[in-house]
Design brief:
This protein is an alpha/beta fold. The protein has a single domain, classed as 3-Layer(aba) Sandwich (Rossmann fold), CATH 3.40.50.1580. Helices cover 30% and strands 22% of the residues. It has a 15-stranded mixed beta sheet that branches. Strand 7 and strand 8 form a beta hairpin.
Length: 371
């Protein structure tokens, strides 16, 4: 039994390769049109624009000791907020924080369970600040396994994640948004699987859910906005960090065919696939990494201020995109996507030889495959 403790706090701290292109040319050509997004009209940190009624309604405060089977009955859409968007959503979310005990320790922060209000009715969501309340966890310290396990335990079937990144290509400008379709994993200090006691090999040729990406792109088109771009594809290079790239590394990533450089999408996307959760990333471009010389004469303070301003503008754009996409995701909640069947052929171990304790510990992840 896993216990979920729901509590209402009095305060929340809201501080803030070329070869790939050849391989994927046919797939990308079908969706190569750029989608325009608006210039942000506000700075950050700041108060978000007023709304006629709250987007998120709080759940009743209670303490619920629940069995695993009870925690998967209500489907939810999870939103993982990274740099920028995490703080923005945390500031405006009025849901109840929930703590979930997992075999991998606690998640980054309490998970906020709320209802997103839409004309079609409320949409159950679960919001998680990837870097913790107050952005206290660097990318290598984020408890990725605990985060995904907790979201799975709470019934999340889809994850829309956000993350700041550097652009490795001239045409991807600061403040643009990207819905990546490919990834290169350069991390080396992070546990990348739930299955330490079995041989489980999920298919990952498309590391981001194709169907969920399509919904996000369609939502971007429906916004019919101008100026900044929403790029429908991109190869995301995930480095370990927390230091940024050397110029030689940045140039190498460009030669590999990388479009973006970030620190958090992996192993997050891999673990979501193992947990049979549909996962897509909204990447927020903040700068041109280190391959492109900065503006001559710009001191470090001014450069940092410029990057932060790009992040804030991209945050506003990403928030608008996610708001537009959520109703479309929820409308398809009865559909079983490819990601939701990721373990069907992935468990190579003889199930009768896997330790019962290991099976029980990962019940929310693979329990349905053990009769």
């Amino acid at each position: 039994m896993i216990y979920i403790i729901v509590y209402k706090p009095t305060h929340l701290d809201t501080t803030p390769a070329k070869t790939f292109r050849k391989t994927l040319k046919n797939e990308k050509s079908a969706s190569s049109d750029k989608i325009s997004l608006p210039v942000a009209q506000s700075s950050f940190p700041r108060d978000l624009p007023p709304i006629s009624k709250p987007l998120l309604n709080p759940l009743p405060s209670t303490c619920i000791p629940a069995k695993l089977s009870h925690m998967n009955t209500t489907p939810r859409i999870a939103i993982i907020g990274g740099s920028g968007l995490g703080a923005a959503l945390l500031a405006k979310t009025t849901g109840q924080p929930v703590t979930v005990d997992t075999p991998f320790g606690p998640p980054s922060a309490p998970i906020l369970l709320s209802d997103w209000q839409t004309p079609a009715g409320p949409i159950p969501i679960a919001f998680l600040a990837r870097h913790g309340v107050g952005h206290t966890l660097n990318p290598s310290q984020v408890p990725y396994r605990a985060n995904i396990f907790a979201l799975k335990s709470l019934g999340c079937q889809w994850i829309i994640a956000s993350g700041a990144c550097g652009s490795l290509q001239e045409h991807i400008r600061p403040r643009d948004l990207i819905i990546p379709d490919q990834a290169i994993d350069k991390t080396h200090r992070r546990a990348g699987t739930f299955f330490d006691h079995a041989a489980v090999h999920v298919e990952l040729s498309q590391p981001f859910c194709t169907q969920l990406r399509r919904i996000l792109l369609q939502a971007g088109k429906s916004l019919q906005l101008s100026t900044h771009k929403l790029h429908p594809t991109g190869t995301y290079v995930c480095m370990e960090g927390p230091a940024f790239s050397t110029r030689a590394e940045s140039l190498m990533h460009r030669q590999w065919g990388g479009d973006l450089i970030g620190m958090t999408a992996l192993p997050e996307a891999k673990l979501a696939r193992e947990a049979e959760i549909s996962y897509a990333l909204v990447a927020l471009s903040t700068d041109y990494d280190s391959w492109r010389p900065h503006t001559p004469g710009l001191d470090k303070s001014a450069l940092l201020a410029e990057i932060i301003s790009h992040l804030h503008a991209a945050t506003d754009n990403a928030l608008a995109l996610i708001q537009a996409a959520l109703p479309d995701v929820w409308a398809r909640r009865e559909e079983v996507l490819d990601s939701h069947r990721a373990l069907e052929l992935a468990i190579w171990s003889d199930k009768s030889k896997i330790a019962p304790d290991a099976v029980k510990a990962l019940q929310p992840i693979w329990g349905k495959y053990f009769g």
